[in-house]
Specification:
By secondary structure, the protein is an alpha+beta fold. It is built from 11 helices and 25 strands. The strands form 8 sheets. A 7-stranded antiparallel β-sheet has the order 12-11-13-14-10-20-21, with no helix packed on it. A 4-stranded antiparallel β-sheet has the order 6-5-7-8. The longest helix has 30 residues. The two termini are 15 Å apart. The relative contact order is 0.13.
Amino acid sequence: MLLAIVYFLLILTGIVVVHELGHYLFSRVFGVRVLEFAIGMGPKLWSKKGKKTTFRINAFPIGGYVRPAGEDLDAIDSSVPDNEQIQNKPAWQRFIIYFAGPAFSLLLGFLILSLVAVVWGFQEVKIDKVELGSPAALSGMLPGDRIASVNGKTLLDNTRLSEAVVRGEKIDLVVIREGREVEITLIPEMLPQEAFIVIGNTTGEPGAALSTINGAAFNGDYVGYAGVLSPESTVKLGFSDGTTLSGTLLTYSPTEERYAMGIYYANFKPIVATDFGQFRKGDVLVSVNGMTTETSYDLTTMSQLLSLKPNELLIQFTGRETTFARYGFPEEFVVTLERDGQVVDLTMTKNEMIALVSEVGAFSQGSDYWYPDSPVEAAVLGVQWANDLLITMVKVVGSLFTGGANINEFTGPIGLVTIVDQAVSLGTRIVLFLAGFISLNLGVINMIPFPALDGGRMLLALLEIITRKRLDPKIEGLINVIGFMILMGFMIYITFIDIGRWL
């Protein structure tokens, strides 16, 4: 974790310094004197006074800052001429100065992701499992296919495909199968509502099709029951074949009806990637406690069952149909694997297996990397990749204001340290990708038109350009102080959320 903290501070400081460099350079372009350009926060470790700017390195490597003359109205340096103070510059110049920071953050994100593309190429979007009778199966898609393009556009990650599926319209795909291109056309189908339910202290067994919940006829609306079924309450499920199942409701996760193709992506292979406990690098998992582990989907389901007690039942419903039902694993069970061409049975405790699946990079990647025809094409696609990520970020941030996203889903510094820790264990490519992602995110967040953020200052400058009237600088300063306090409160709240997740 110490190494992760060091990486996090280096990444954050580098990204923030580039952001502040944008403010600095355009302040100088418009003749604004920058009193200080600092790397890090806190007490000064080193400084060098330039012609008009003091450059300094501070004790705590947490970001950095620039201090333009005239920005702090309570501490204006009278030795600085009025025409070198930012408060006295035209609104359009102040707008550009404030915009330059987010712009440099976005530019850095694009450069980093393009570099990642040029050096490593792109992760394959590969199919691991195809549901029987699904649109994907009927169109001829097979496990092992790599999806190369969607509606004529190169597929760099699964985002573009997911967006096409959500619309429910015809999709033209090109997949790579055994080195050749195969064209496939399909139309996603609407899946009924689904639900994952965990029930403890069960009595009875699940049947094939759900017909009643707590004695009331069930009409397929799992989402509607979300406000009725509460954790730790008693629940009784009735099935069309006359069987019943009752117990204590532990988890209830309904999903709205949605369009789907019927595929699962190859995230991992059931191949152990490193020596770990009783496992050896190259071991191929065949089954865990009698449950087959052939695909990423199987590994994910197996991980869910490891978190349950032996008397806790995980059930998946699609529409009324029971599509999966299995109890949690016992404290000790048999893991069957292939090792050096031989079938080996290992007696394993639950904690040993949980430790394996919790280890980042414990299993081999389910897909490889593919490389464009030339580095130039890779760079161009890298820019497209960054642009796609940027658009997604803007949509996510926008959904905060429309109610489409929950603030608890966001992460702060502690959460980022955990993510960096995982990225470090996965290699340089993932660390660089994360740095590019964070830089893009910093640019987007800073352009939110909220006081104390660059976007808030840009908004005030824009209003001045439109109305040709300047808000009293003291009122503007008070607005920014209040905004800063709100932002600090928000960060403290997110930090507590991160601590809860970590614990």
